[in-house]
Amino acid sequence: MANTPLIKVIKMKLLNKSNLELALRQCVFLILNVYGLSKLLGGQFYMKGNLPAEIANTTLGEVNSFSIAWTFMGHSYAYVLFVALSQLLGAWFLLWNKTKLLGILILMPIMVNIMLFDVIFLDVYPALANAVIVTVMLFLILNYNRERVFSAFQLLTGINQATTPHMNRRLSALVIAILAIISIYFFDTLIEYWLGASQYKITG
Fold first, then answer.
1. Nearest to residue 119, comparing CAs of 144, 111, 88, 202?
2. For residue 104, which of 76, 78, 136, 71 has the smallest C-alpha distance?
């Protein structure tokens, strides 16, 4: 019973919003540093001039999608360097409150690209799972900072309640413009069909 207040204090600290957010940032920092440093040291892709023998001796038609993807990614060290440094820069930015949103802004496109790459080319599900976990943690960090994100969005776009009618007019004008373009394309196609221009384009 004497330890009950201490346990409560520990639970409160563990469940504290800022502590959870900091823990998420540190987790992403550690994971992406491992991946970023691995890229820099040439340990993640099949680097140009250092292909495994079984890959180098396999014809393009026989190689699997994983090997093609890994060889393609490692063909240009400049590209690998760019991705690695971007991951490291974004990860380090997560460590400070003033730069954490900038870090997320850098990392989000990279993680989305990695997930798409893993889904399309790779059949290694742990790699996809890791990318999904990191992306989910980034979204949770964004959620913890949603007030700052919304404020930044308002500052960048100038959107607020006072400009809502103005935005409605812009959206209405955009819809009208799209409808006008569709109508022009429809009538242009119809006229070409009547005049035989479409047939001329196909056969001529």
1. 111
2. 136
